[in-house]
C-alpha cells in the first residue's frame, strides 16, 4: 500500500512542480486557453498579463493531462482512490508508531531478565556490560518475533533469544580463535561438571570421570577440553611493574644461544691458529677443499685450476696437510670442539 501511495505521490508532485513553473494550476491554464481562443476584450488584457502564449499553455495543459492520466491508471489498476489511500497509509503509520511504543515498553519491562541471564555468562571473555548489550539485542529480536496467540509466556520465549544472542557473541568475540556456538554450549557443560566434581573429589577430575557424569564419549570430552583452552598473548605483561612481556622469556630457537655462539667463535680462532702452522699453499688448499671461510667446498679440479696444477697434485698437497693436522700437537687443540 505504501508503495502504491509513493507512486501516486510522485505523479502528483510532478504536476504540482509543473503548475508552479507555469504560475497557474491546471484549471487556470484551461480557462486562459478558453479566453485566448475567444474574441472578447478579456483576450487582450490576458495577453498583456500572461508571460506565455496560447501554444505554450496548450503544451503545458497536455503534459499535465498526461500526468493526471498516469495517476488515473494507477488508481484504476490498484482499485483505490488517492485520498482514501492517503488516509489508510496515515492510519498504518499511526499503528506502527503505537506498535513501536508498545515494543519499547516490553523491552524496558524485561531489562532485569537480560541482566539476570547475563550474570550466568560472566568470566567467559566478555565484559558484563557487553553481555547485557548482546542480551538486549536478543530481547529486541524476541519482541519482534513474539506471537501471543501461540500461548507461550513472553519471558520464556525471550529467555531463549537472549541466551542465543549472548552465547553467539561469546563464540564470535571472546576468543582469539573462533569456536562454534554448539561447541561453546558443550564447553559450558563440561566446565560446570568439572567444578562440581572438584568440590566432590577435592581434586581435578579426569576426562573419563567427566565423561561418565555427562554420559559423553571420552573422546568428545577431551576435544571439548582442548577447544576450551585459551591462547596466551606473547605481549602479555609479566611482573608487578609490567616492564617485561611473556615473549622476553621464551627461547628463540632460530638464533644460537650465547654459549653456542661463544663456542663457535673459540673454535674459529683455534682453527685459524692450527691452519697457520701449515705452509701458505697447504692452508689455502685445505680452506678451498673444505669451504672454510665462504662455506663453499671446491673439487680437486677447481682447486687445481686456481693453482694451475693437476688434480693429483692438489690431492697430494691436501693429504700432506691433513697428516700434519692429525699430529697430536695440532689435533688436541680441536678435540674439545668435536660435539659443536
From TrEMBL:
GO terms for biological process: DNA-templated transcription initiation. Pfam families: Sigma70_r2, Sigma70_r3, Sigma70_r4. Transmembrane segments: none annotated. Residues 299-325 form the RNA polymerase sigma-70 domain. The keyword Lipid metabolism does not apply. Residues 43-77 form a coiled coil. SUPFAM superfamilies: Sigma2 domain of RNA polymerase sigma factors, Sigma3 and sigma4 domains of RNA polymerase sigma factors. It comes from the Bacteria. The keyword Transcription applies. InterPro entries: RNA_pol_sigma-70_dom, RNA_pol_sigma70, RNA_pol_sigma70_r2, RNA_pol_sigma70_r3, RNA_pol_sigma70_r4, RNA_pol_sigma_r2, RNA_pol_sigma_r3/r4-like, RNA_pol_sigma_RpoD_C. GO terms for molecular function: DNA binding; sigma factor activity. Keywords: Coiled coil, Cytoplasm, DNA-binding, Sigma factor, Transcription, Transcription regulation. This is RNA polymerase sigma factor RpoD.
